[in-house]
Amino acid sequence: MANKVRWGVLSTAAIGVKKVIPGMQKGEWSEVTAIASRDRRRAEEVPRTLGIAKAYGSYEELLADPQIEAIYNPLPNQLHVPWSIKAAEAGKHVLCEKPVSLTVAEARTLLAVRDRTGVKIGEAFMVRTHPQWLRARDLIVSDRIGGLRSVVGFFSYFNRDAANIRNIPEYGGGALMDIGCYPIITSRFMFGEEPSRVQGLVERDPDMKVDRLTSAILDFPSGQAIFTCSTQLVPYQRMHFLGTRGRIEIEIPFNAPIDRPCRIFIDDGGDIFGGRIVAENFPICDQYTIQGDAFSRAVRDDTEVPVPLEDAVKNMAVIEAIFRSAESGRWETP
């Protein structure tokens, strides 16, 4: 039996309650032992439905619990950095939901806190540990599709609820922060490089002012990535990786299902109708279980977390540069 890391969760946010906590509860290395909510009723109700032993009526009480070793922070974006700092200063390791901050400068403050306190702080990009992504990266590194030259991505959903935090600008709402960050991190991951310059095009909702349709070009040393993301389009997601001799397509790249296998498609381009496409299936798994266990193992083994803060800062730099480019109409350097 693994020596499980004891986790506490800051808030009863939907992503935690519906996806991340149930995933972590299946882990070999993670045990969710406490949850905190500022709403006392939620603080009592949610742990009961999820079978979590301890409930706290404030975040401070949770951070003061000496039994808790690590904190999962799924608070709204503008609270990521302040509460991650408080958790680190309380001696807790922190897995913070993406995007880790609202700005590069804010993300950098976390680096100083991490180095001072000696805890581990990572960003919760679950895609980075999912088997389908690790396999696609291996195929690219092993030259299966020749040199990677082009990445094409799309990610969208429809949500015009003005009260939803994803539609409030000062809370870090909008398409690029919420979902555009995924094509960015996966393009950087697959190229194994940072873009030297980026160009962005942003359309904002006339009432809510958040970006609702954003497209970008990322210029990497080895090639180019282009993507579009939207919070007001038909729900869809797909990522394509095109090399000199072949192509890889990830069918459900980001919201990988937990009730059916995932698939990637490898195409050598020999038949335009797809007759030579090879599908690889990945056994049913929960990417939040894998993410939690990978972080917990890094705590136990004192190794690097899957998405360290240095990576989070670089991803944030690309997001900022895309927004700058949309304003300036020029290429911008992250």
What does this structure look like?
- This protein is of the alpha/beta class.
- The chain contains 9 helices and 14 strands.
- The protein has helices spanning 14-24, 40-50, 59-64, 80-89, 104-117, 131-141, 175-191, 287-301, 309-328; strands spanning 5-10, 30-36, 54-56, 70-73, 93-97, 121-124, 148-158, 197-204, 211-219, 224-230, 232-243, 247-250, 262-267, 278-282.
- The strands form 2 sheets. It has an 8-stranded mixed β-sheet.
- It is globular and about 60 Å long.
- The termini are far apart.
- The relative contact order is 0.16.
E-strand count: 14
Report the span from N to C terminus: 45 Å
Q: Spell out the helices and strands N to C.
A: EHEHEHEHEHEHEHEEEEEEEHH
Number of H- or I-type helical stretches: 9
Q: Please identify the oligomeric state.
A: single chain
State the strand order across the main sheet.
8-9-10-7-11-12-13-14
**Can you summarize the main beta sheet?**
8 strands, mixed
β-sheet strand percentage: 25-35%
The average pLDDT is 96
- The helix/strand class is alpha/beta
Shape: globular
The value of Rg in angstroms is 20 Å
